[in-house]
Amino acid sequence: MADEDGSETECLQDIFTDPWRPPTPEATFARYVRYRDENDSKDSSSEEVAVRLVGSHPLWGHYLWNASVAVAEYLESHRDLVRGRFVLELGAGGGLPGIVSAQIGAKKVVLTDYPDQELIDNLTYNVDHNVSPADRTNIDIQGYIWGHKVQGLLAALPSTRDGWRAFDLIILSDLVFNHSQHDALLRTCELSLTPLSGQPCEPPSSQPAPCVLVFYTHHRPHLAHRDLDFFTKARSQGWICEEIVTRKFPPMFPDDPGDEEVRATVHGWRLVRGTSKVETAAA
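Request: output the structure for the sequence above.
Response:
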């Protein structure tokens, strides 16, 4: 650009230049093949779940974790945990376990992740493209920060149980590596799984007790003891903790340091309420 006298001047784009950034990676897809039993209607659900994953995200939403696949497969082989019941998934990422729960007969599924629009939009996409229109109304998607108040989560449930709302199953898939969030995760589970004060606490005898499924891998073997602190804290708060699954997968990150056998193993635990140290009124 030249002034009227012919001297050169700088353009605005020469003055205010943004640092170069690589383009955001495109979304990817991972496919989970459904197990179908004799009670599945051919029209009720698809043969597979195509999970769209955000191209990149600082909260690790761009991976389909081995633990997520292990939870989905566990639910398909233990459908009494899900059918006709209320399911909450925390830190859902692509939402595979929650989507499978809806496909195999959950009465209501609430999928949550950090309230980042990209993550919530991606969850919505996966639900819309994998759940039949008839079942879509049974799924609610929310942004939620662990440890915060749970009224919004419980409000998504129909009030059909003598006026109280609570979840029968809570899913935590590969979350316990967030060591600083153990207390927050346990608090949300306590407030969401336990019935409101003054209501009956015992589930019908014909159904499994309300529980939390915690599936994870020790991605950093040298910090495995920190992962396991989650269960130490849970027991101190009255939870009964039992390991129910051990499965081998190809390691998520083959080049990472540490024992590959450890990094390839998914552990699954079931937590059932014992005595509570958290006041439900705090919800």
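The first helix runs from residue 12 to 15.
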